[in-house]
Description:
2 strands, 4% strand
Amino acid sequence: xxxxxxxxxxxxxxxxxxxxxxxxxxxxxxxxxxxxxxxxxxxxxxxxxxxxxxxxxxxxxxxxxxxxxxxxxxxxxxxxxxxxxxxxxxxxxxxxxxxxxxxxxxxxxxx
Length: 111
């Protein structure tokens, strides 16, 4: 969610969450020892939280900003190879697959 929707002026980094802090939390605190992601430290990893944590990680890494020139700003912790594919935040599937589904089922490019 971008602060612009609340009537605030739009600026880079003006999201309602810190992209870097979310990545740090997910990567440092939520990884299971044997794989998967968990709700919070002390809990076991499961499929549900793995799915939604990866969605949040993709959103944090691929934060998009519009400055009139389709400017893209990304924040990826660590190696650039850690970057996840852009995820559709509504459907929690890859952006490409969400666009294909919208075209297939309704001939649309957006909701």
